[in-house]
Each structure stands twice: as C-alpha cells, then as structure tokens.
## 1
Amino acid sequence: MFTSFKELEAYVLGCGMKKRIALANAHDEPALSAVVNARRKGVVEGTLVGKKNEIIAMLHEMGESEKDYEIVDFDGEELDAAKLTVQLVREGKADIPMKGILQTSNFARAILNRETGLIPASGKRLAHSCVISADRHINVIYIVTFFKKLSFEKVGKRLCRCYNLISVGIR
C-alpha cells in the first residue's frame, strides 16, 4: 500500500506505461495544468477538447507547445463536450476521460448514458476513484465509489456526498 504521493508517483513512473487522457472543456487552468505535468513526466498524452484558442494560450503560458497535444476545437454545451470526450474513449482514441471546466453532473451523465456512455454491457461495475493526501495526514486516502444499475440521480447524489465528505475532511 502506498503511504504518500511520492510512492505512488514512483510506482507509476516505474511502470513505463503511457495513457491518453481526453480532457473535456480543457480551457481550465487547473485541469490542463494536471495534464501538462503528467505529460512532462512521461505518463500521459493529451487530447484536449475545448476552446482551441484559449487552450493554446494557456499552453503557451505553461511553456508548452500546442504541437505536443491533440486539440479538438469545441465551443458548445458542457454536456456535448463531455459526450465527445466519452466518445473518444469508446472509440479507443483515448484511455481515460477527464473533467475540465464543466459541471460534474454533465460529466457523469455522459459517462453513465446507457447507449453512448462507458457503462459495461456485461453489467459489471463502473468505478469512480479519487486519491487524496493532505499535509497533516500521514496516509494517502483512497476513495472508490462503485456504480451498478443505479439511476443517474442516485449516482449524482453519491458523487456529491463523496465530494462533500472530502471537502469537509480537508478543511
């Protein structure tokens, strides 16, 4: 078991594995910065879905070239950006969907759509995970939420409850 982000990072870097992240509404500094940092460490490639000009400007501010990323120019509704990101994963053009600047409910709705989302046809569970560490805590906290045959409203409530617990616990 990992007890720090440093241990977790060393393990991931040691695996030599690289995944492609599709970032929905990538014109979001914190999310884009996370993808940039992971790319610099060699563990991800980035497909950035969102407002191309804003994404390019942010990449330049971070000292990155847009040529190192696949940018899908998209300036539409949040839900449609999330659906496009999920479609990239379904088509094998990306491995991991990531939420940028959009409502969690729209991101979850795209993922949980029975026809176009990522719900396994086998009926197996879909997992949402989060890893958290705070300076005052020694251990890394792993939170995994499993979803199986739940309505969208129930899933949304579970995600909100999870995020509320996290924010209350860290304050």
## 2
Amino acid sequence: MIEFLLTVPIVFSLVLALLEFSVLFVQIQRVSALSREAANAAFRDCSTLSNDPTPQLDACIDGILNPISQGGASILSNFAANGTLIVSIYQNGPVLVTQRTVGGGGYFSQYPGRPIDARLIPPPGLPVNGVIPPLTRIAIGEAFYTYTPLTIVGTLLGFALPGNLYETTIY
C-alpha cells in the first residue's frame, strides 16, 4: 500500500506533463499553419497587383488577414489577445512595400522594414519557369502566440516550455 501511495503522484505528474507537452506541440503546429496560410494567401492573392502598392495592396492584405486571424481564434484559445499575425511584402529586392498587422498580442515584426537576405531574391532577368518576371515580390507571414500552460505541472515546467511561440514563412 505504501508503494502505491508513493507512485501514484509520480505517475499522475508524468501523465499531466505528457498532456502539457502534447498540447504545446499541437499549438506549435497551429501557429506554423497560421504563418504558412498568411504568407501563401498574401503571395497568391496580392503579389500580382500593380506597382502602386499602397491602397490596393493594403486592402488586399487586410482582406486576407481578417479571415485568417478569425481562423486563428478558432484553433488557438484567446488568439485575439495573445496572438499577432503580420504579413510583409517586399518588392524587387529589399524594398518593403507594405506590412500589415492583426491581433492584440503586442508583438512586432522581426522584419521591420530592414533589408532581407539577398539570397532569397532571384537575380534580375533570371527566368522563373521560363518567364522573366516584371517585378519580384516576396511575402513573409509571421505568427506570434503566447502559450499559457494548462496544468500546474505545466506551470512548474515553465523553465522547459517556451512562453512565446513564433513562426515565419517566406513565399
């Protein structure tokens, strides 16, 4: 009976730790999916717009960010308060065309108008699928989320669990 009383709290703690890590892993995957969806939608829907970036491109990005952030709210608890979704579009090299943010997490872009790595940009005149693009645009989707532990074991494991989740996708 003594052995049972000694092992039950340990086994129960291990089960709660397993639950905490599995929930964390699922939330990491969901943040990654939000980042991918934001960058993919921005590149697919907004990257072929005209060279006049401001009104038309901002409206396009706002049109895709709002439904994606609502989807984020449905898959991540309290995303409106703890999460931020940012889409940046660069054109013809390291020129930031626009950057739009949605969410209340208070996060800022890791690409705040600074030049991006030149290795991400194809050289001018290089054919892409046999066609020379008139303008090259890169869409960057960033998703931030503050993870809050579910159980007391997750709170005790705070040193091992990341508090802020961040994912970047570049198209």
## 3
Amino acid sequence: MEVGRDGGQSLDREAPLLSRLSPADLVTPRRLDLAVKWRLFRHMVYDSDPEAIRVYRWHIAKRHQSGFVDGEKMRGDATLDHYQAEAEALFKSMKANGFDTKFPIPVDPQMELLGGAHRVACALVLGCEVEIEHYARDAWAPAWDRAWFVKAGMDAADLARTEADFARMVR
C-alpha cells in the first residue's frame, strides 16, 4: 500500500506494483490505436512508409477533437507537430537506451493501458520489454478500437491497413 501525499494510505495501486513483460502482452482489441503508432515507429526504422505520418497525424487530430490529447493550449498543426516531434524523440531515445524503467507503463487490473501507448508501440518495433505498474482503477478512456476509428471517419483503405498492421504487430 502506498502512502498518499496527505500521509494517509492510498488504495489506488494493487500488488505487485511492478513487473516486466513483452509489450505484445499489452495489445488488446480495445487498443487499435497501437497499430497506428506501431506503423509510425516502423517507418522511423525503415523509412519506407511516408503514409504512416499522415495516418498518425489524422489519428492525433481526431483524438484531439474528442478531448483526449494533451494538447494543452496548442491548436491544429502545432499539436500535430508537437506529437510527431515527441514520437520521434521517444523513438531515438528508446533506440539508443532501451525502455526507461523510471517510467513504467500504467495498467489496470485487466492489463488495459492507462497510458504509455506510444512507448508500448515503440517497444514492439524495437523488440524490447517494458516495465508495467499495476493500478486498481479501470481504464478511464474510451476504447480506441475499430468502432472508434469508423465513427471518427477513417478512410476504408486506411482502416483495412490499420487492422492488418494490428494483426502483424502481435505476431
């Protein structure tokens, strides 16, 4: 049990607090968005899929419109440029140094991501394990699944490619 800031006990976390595993263990149908990020990071490795950038930026823009992107005061292209630059910096850091265990991936009791989707997708591409931190609360965000992508208006060809990438991602 963790001690809260006020000195009281926090029941937010459950044991075991930390564990290490393959990022593929965190891929669920609820997180089709991981395939978009995975495709972007693969493009950073192989420089063979410039469309990955367009699809990634589309996804971030749609998430921003729904209020689920930490764009703070950024708007439009500034938000997209920021996220793309941060993804590139994350890739370079993880490629050089591996997964940073000081920042474990938060997961709920069902092993659904509470954050860290970019790090999970990057780790999948680079083939490194991740460290996770278990929390007692359930995932708060909506599912970024097929239904979300359809509702957000993803082009049929892009959706088919994203679903194919999702299947490839966990092989």
